[in-house]
Design goal:
With 260 residues, this protein is α/β, with parallel strands linked by helices. The chain has two domains: 2-161, 3-Layer(aba) Sandwich (Rossmann fold), CATH 3.40.50.620; 165-257, Alpha-Beta Plaits. The protein contains twelve helices and seven strands. The strands form two sheets. It has a four-stranded parallel β-sheet with strand order 3-2-1-4, with helices on one face. Strands 5-6-7 form a three-stranded mixed β-sheet, with helices on one face. Helix 1 (2-13) crosses helix 2.
């Protein structure tokens, strides 16, 4: 594949640094290319309590791509991040980047060409820390990174599983551990039963939890009264109402209201 080779060649010129590694397809494509180019790139996975994947899975994913050592950074989100303002991602990303070793080496990430037109306040933090995004630089889309990552040996189950659960809670609603736990449990409940990795359990306000589904199997699943009771048992701990969205899973609708 032409873009796969271009990515490998890119790392033959950019040979040292740190990679913000999530284990998803985007950063997996970057890590795989760096390893193929024999670049001295240290992948870093951040555990800030918002992850849907687990550290053990990410260690395996990094090894799948040729990296023997995955550096894990434990992060406790600050008050500003927990308050969940519209620029939460900027504050969160800034905190994470501040913890990367300051030895003059470049930091890389998995931002793709597809991401550039979306609402991404974290991009400002990337710019401030001079983070390089090879996928975006080479015009590689999110669709293309999946194929590239798989070619390098990424496990699709691990890649699909990783997601930031902080994005599920509407802006200015607190990112409490109880809410994150409920979202994690609802999404994994549905994933375990249907393999619907695109499920999104969203909290719109203190009263309303809304579950977005993608697979027909997921919609069939919720026709079972016992399943609905079990989902409410989880979601009812943090919200008064637990509902199913009639539209399929999609990017955060609230971002459309924000002036970029």
């Amino acid at each position: 594949m032409e873009k796969q080779e271009a990515l490998i060649n890119w790392f033959k010129k950019n040979t040292e640094g740190y990679l913000l590694f999530s284990g998803g397809f985007d950063s997996s494509a970057v890590l795989g290319a760096a390893m193929k180019a024999n670049a001295n790139i240290q992948p870093i996975w951040v555990n800030n309590g918002f992850n849907r994947a687990q550290a053990g899975d990410m260690i395996i994913q990094a090894r799948n791509l040729g990296a023997a050592d995955l550096k894990i950074i434990e992060v406790t989100p600050g008050e500003t991040v927990i308050a969940n303002p519209e620029r939460r991602c900027y504050h969160c990303k800034s905190h994470i980047l501040s913890l990367v070793p300051k030895d003059g080496r470049t930091i890389y990430d998995g931002t793709t060409a597809s991401d550039l037109g979306n609402y991404r306040p974290g991009k400002k933090a990337l710019d401030e820390y001079h983070v390089k995004s090879p996928l975006a630089e080479l015009g590689i889309s999110s669709w293309e990174t999946k194929e590239i990552a798989l070619a390098f040996g990424a496990d699709p189950l691990f890649a699909e599983h990783e997601s930031c659960l902080a994005t599920r809670i509407n802006y200015n609603e607190l990112l409490t551990s109880e809410r994150i736990k409920a979202i994690y449990e609802v999404e994994n409940y549905i994933i375990d039963k249907t393999g619907d990795f695109h499920v999104r359990c969203r909290i719109d306000d203190s009263d309303h939890m809304r579950i977005e589904l993608t697979k027909p199997e997921s919609y069939a699943l919720i026709t079972d009264e016992k399943v609905r009771e079990e989902l409410f048992e989880i979601g009812g701990k943090v919200c008064l109402f637990v509902t199913i969205d009639v539209k399929r899973s999609r990017p955060n609708e609230y971002d459309k209201r924000i002036k970029k």
